[in-house]
Amino acid sequence: MTLNTIETSPPASADGPSEALGSPDLKTTLCHAGRHPEAHSGAVNVPVYHASTILFPTLQALDTKAEARVRYGRRGTPTTYALEEAVSALEGAEGTVLTPSGAMAITLTLLSHARPGAHFLIPDNAYGPCRHACNEIMIPMGVEVTFYDPAIGAGIAELLRDDTALIWLEAPGSQTFEMPDIPAIVAVAKAKGIPTAIDNTWAGGYFLRPLAMGVDFSVQAGTKYLCGHSDVMSGTIACGPGRHARMKDFAARMGACVGPDDAYLVLRGMRTMSVRMEQHYRAAVEIAEWLEDRPEVLRVMHPALPSDPGHAIWKRDFTGASGLFGFILKPVDRPRLARMMDGLRFFGMGASWGGFESLLIPTNPAALRSATNWAPGGQTMRMHVGLEAPGDLIADLAAGLERLG
Question: Which stretches are tagged as biased composition: Polar residues (predicted)?
């Protein structure tokens, strides 16, 4: 693959290309979804509503407050409703539930299907907080959890039980970037009436629309690409047909809510999401291709590369790729790795990703595996390519790799 062959525009919408008075392009949707200037004195952006108590003008209004959209701050305000509407438009959802973090979005989705004796199927490469929630919350509650090989595809049918209550997916897998066969797994789940949920943070809901593929819940850390500026904690649960009302009520009973300032910032980030995602995509592929040719690198884990084992699935199901990928350095001791990392100019070292800035950290995926073996033959690295000029990032990496020697 060369940079000139990358197609960066996603489909116009889940229903097809833009037409006059028809479904708008996703880029257009991101600019307009959740905005109602006529309801806010013409303001382009929805105002920030700081509210807990909502007053009702009459006793009758108080008696019928359950019918009011805004009736208590924890249940939602015009600011949070605007974000819910925007995420639903992005993901093609029946409705969206907001949470204070991506980790809570995961945990709430798991908890909403948990009961003593229930059985969950979780990919072995799932995001760490998902695995921790299963091991430290679900299992002590009486839920049985089976971690499965992320490459299992339709073979997941062999792991089903009569009490299987949820199948979790992550596309691609955290830290190691395996690509699951979503349609194959969903087909098995649908045949048995088992709900499915996917961590869709990597694609941001922009390059993958899993609800249109039959997945029931699309979970994101809005902290990442929805916000895009590394300054907000946020989570979203986009719900498929018939799934929203119960999830919304469950989250309310759990007390999950988000602050209006955070909701406003995520909304603001979404307005520029299309241009950010396409820049992340192009720059990350360029850098991944460059890393493939470096003698210090054993292999690169990026589904958009033809050399990646998950490339065919990525090409079939996705319309692009984000800025996050991994690679394996040849065996290196910690002092040499420190020489490389400590001198980097544009790559920061820190948790999270999805912001405008580039990040690079060493990881240890083997510590989060139980069903599969991770023995790559070298040091696993996770990179997020931000919005800097790729040439500057490559020069920074080249100097760092030279320091390894």
Answer: 1-11
